[in-house]
Write a structure and sequence with these properties.
Layout (H helix, E strand, L loop, with lengths): L1 E5 L1 H6 L1 H13 L12 H17 L2 E8 L2 E9 L9 E9 L8 H15 L4 E7 L3 H8 L3 E11 L5 E10 L8
Parallel strand pairs: 4-5
Antiparallel strand pairs: 1-2, 2-3, 3-4, 5-7, 6-7
Helix pairs in contact: 2-3
Length: 177
Amino acid sequence: MNVTRLDEAQLSDRIEELADLLVDTVDGGSSIGFLAPMDRAAAVAWWKERVGAVAAGHLVVWAAYDGHRAVGTVSLAFPDKPNSRHRAELVKLMVRRDARGQGLGRRLLGTAEEAARAAGITLLHLDTETDSPAERLYGSAGWTRAGVIPDYAADPAGVLRPATLYYKRLGATAPTR
């Protein structure tokens, strides 16, 4: 599988396939901020809204491809405040249901961590649904559990669920982005 960092033009060109990935992920039960069933038009609109953030340098998106089909993605969101330039948030790690269990999630996570380190980011953070498969991935990849917030977000079925907050120190030196 090929993992590619998408610039503004590439993201714009691949919105349809990324929308399919988003629909598959949400409809498969992953709690990433949307309710099921995921409307495809809403998925397309959501990805279109990300293009400006990529162009401005506030968001970096990677996508994994099996041939021409997007099977996974991960992003880093950078804060816009001067006192936060050392950190980034890992967001929207998604893997298609039929591509799970092959190490793709771990590969995407590693890609984002390496890129963050190279950009001088010293701290990553994220939130994920408590007791989810994603939580097991982060824990096994060396992320530190910071705590749990009850009733943080609704899962795809609309049920309020707790979220676990994680962070990872990367040990880079100074921000370069």
